Fold each of these.
Amino acid sequence: MTPSAIIQECPQCAASITGDSRFVMWCPECEWNLSRPDRDRPSTRPGPLARLRNRLDARFAADLHRQVLGSGVGTPSRDPGRIAAYALASAVHLFALSMLVGGVWLLVATWPSPFGAVFGVAGVGFAYLARPRFGRLDGDAPALTRQEAPVLYDLLDRVAREAGAPPVDVVLVDGEVNASARTVGLRGTHVLTIGLPLWQILEPQERIALLAHEMGHFSNGDARRMRYVGSAIATLYEIHGAAARQRVRGSLGAIAIAIVVNILTGLIRLLVLGLIMILESLTYRESQLAEYAADDRAARIASPVAVAGVMDKLITKAPAADRHLESAAHRGGDLWEGMREYMAGFPEAEEERLRRLARLERVRVDATHPPTHLRAAFAVSRAYGAATIVVTDDEMERVQAELDAAAGRIAREIADRARAALYE
């Protein structure tokens, strides 16, 4: 028994509980104290609208899960939600283009009319505000090049070939307990971001599953599609922010003008907000289908067990690693060695508590992802044989060494964020 292990009687069912004093004491028999309100749940109670949305969200997630278990993920490109989202996003982009053309035409056709100049400049200015935003690679973000990480890039190329995806152009390594794939810029640069803390808590084959899942987004066209539709949503948010309510003050005439302007901008905000909700709703279903599709590819490449293992870590060890890094950053010392020791001593009882809590509270990465425990169930349902990519211990150690080159910088960034948070 470890020094931190304690035994007590459950106050609800009188069963004997063996636990770790560093973590939540709970009863596996009756699930007493399964959830800690101060740690596992938000401090504010959601309103009626949020509760309704949560219920609808849970029903939708369950229905979609039954669908993919029964008939698979299908062909994402033929999903009606994708077609409708593309159509609405195209309308937003065309509207911005029409404002640009109209503004330029007014300036040229009515010059030197003050009326034409005012409305022409306004049209061009609005077109600039509503321009498509395809993202860009932060020039200050340190990236691993092929020369610096040849073994990692070779592994990524193998995964890309198996997934039917284009090769990764840029690999970023950061301190998030996460990973992501995205396409940025007009040239469509494929960027893979690996969160070093998440990578460290995964087993070797689970790391292959993580890479295969992210590469699956490139092969499905999800990253490219979300860049197009997402830029339309970003444009709408820019317009919504620009149409902010004006402060009513000054002379009577100024107040009257401000009231009229607020009424007009209020109508614009309402219209734009409605379009945002429609676009996000249309992409909601497809985004979750895309996650299942990427999980399916990862299960074929790395094995269903490995994918389910990643999901289990996202439920159990990932939140714990996030909390540990946040607190450890204030204490100093070797951040990564401390995290490895903390994860090595992470008790099974706490892992099981978090698994049960995830099933009860539909834990997910974010709203674009299905609940993580449902994704794990989907992964293990895939009837795939042996993994198509298996790496040797030596190869994975060399990949780890290449990623560890960024470990010191990332540890300093985590510590800097933790110190900055003290002054917010």
Amino acid sequence: MTETAAATTGTGRFTWRFVTPVLIGPVLNPINTSMIAVALVPISHDLHVATSTVVWLVAGLYLASAIAQPTMGKLADVFGPKRVYLVGLVVVLIAGFLPNIWHDFSAVLISRILIGIGTSAAYPSAMSLIRDQSTRLDRQTPPALLSGISIASQTTAAVGPVLGGLLISVFGWQSIFLVNIPLAAIALVTAIIWVPSDKTRPERTGPKPALRDIDPIGIVLFAGALASLLVFLLNLKVELIWLVGVTIVLVAALIWWSLRSEHPFIDIRMLRRNGALSRTYLRMLLIYFGAYSMMYGFSQWVQGSAGYSADQAGFIQLPTAVLAAATSIMIAKNQRLRLPLVLSGAIPFVGGVLLVFLTGASPLWLLLLVAAIFGVPQGLASVSNQQALYRQAPGAQLGTASGLSRTAVYLGSILSSAAIGLAFPSAPTDSGLHSLGIAVAVVVGAAAVLALIDPALKSAASAKSERVGDGLKTQ
């Protein structure tokens, strides 16, 4: 019996053929997010672009991903996750070639935006594919599979600076774009062959999804609000303060529209009712503000003030990668959420405080220690927030809800970019790093308190009693 046939009769299982493409795709976004951290300086020098301009390579992917993640999730909910997943992988393949055939900063920026859009299809599609397969097989989703996505994404994000530094030192900065090609190609081929067709998706309860469910007006309002906010935060000039007003107006319009739309892009009513899910989004925003401030701010400071090269800066963050991966694996089957989520804010609080005491003359062992401190909470936050999301999100909206979780992450990234810009207005300095450390400590400390007082973070026993696949029924 084939895997698809077995799945539709409820007698199959989650095989390695199904799991392989589901795990590969979601690593593309985090690895592209983190590899660029050590490439900004080489790209700036090679293409003769100012530091204030090259930062748009980070911001462009942030903005594209923050908008595209829930959009792709919505498309996956409506048209089927496999279709959306495959289209996204094709976009990534095209983007990987672009900077290598067009040696210009505009090509690099376009490639980053395309990578942001293409890779954004993977995570929400993967979550929907898993939920659909769970319902087909009439079995609960293995916690290890959900943790596997977190571990794969977390590990590649943490390894990104190390891999990026190594590739740049051997092949040049263009190689961090080429690395997408084999990964996307493997995910594309295996998904075509081994992932069940969207035609075999379990029926939903309620109305059948239709094209009108996309809500283009909601998407435009959401994109406009994020874009105006991002432009202001990356420039932080008095003459651009009007963009804050634009953001507020667009957010108000989005809320008004969502409350009156039958099929809203951002379901404000659901978020208002589902306080647990809304708090999960907020925790993710706060935690990843600290993670990305460390990843990008610390990396720039190591190169610009402490005097290390791009590949050395990548290897200095190796303890972050190792401990993040090890922690993710250790808690892969953990069902208790409160303690890991409290620690995911409390531990980087200590790291933020230590940043205040670093100088360009600090010994290498101290830099490695600070990097190591930020590794453990990344593993804790990634796995535990993923499990919280899967439990709390409505089954019929899992794609959109998963995409919104990534938007929360990128909002944290966007805010961290603004904080880094304030800390390093012209070049990385010790005093700027100290200010950044204070900001990190305050924000991640708030995340720890939020997790501590959240009544929705239940015990292991109650978590196991929750059914997976609510809102869906098998054909």
